[in-house]
Amino acid sequence: MKSNYIKKIDMICPFCKRKIFEYDNKIQNSIITCASCKKHFTKKELLNSNNRNIENNFKKLGEDAMKDLAKDIKKIFGNSKYFKIKI
Prior knowledge:
Blueprint: E1 21-22, E2 32-34, E3 40-41, H1 43-49, H2 51-77
Antiparallel strand pairs: 1-2, 2-3
């Protein structure tokens, strides 16, 4: 099984659906601006508007982890005469 599951999730502008933003990472809670349509967001607003995207990626990551775990369990106990694995 993988030792970690890291997934990069691109934020999407709720107005123009582009993925490129401008912000000052030196300033905490800086305003985020869409590079395409120039709309302004706070971090919280952008996260809220991308909630479905984040949830779908999180669900997919969990499914991938479960598949890897099932493979590992099958690999470990698959040839055992004491255990029968049904996955």
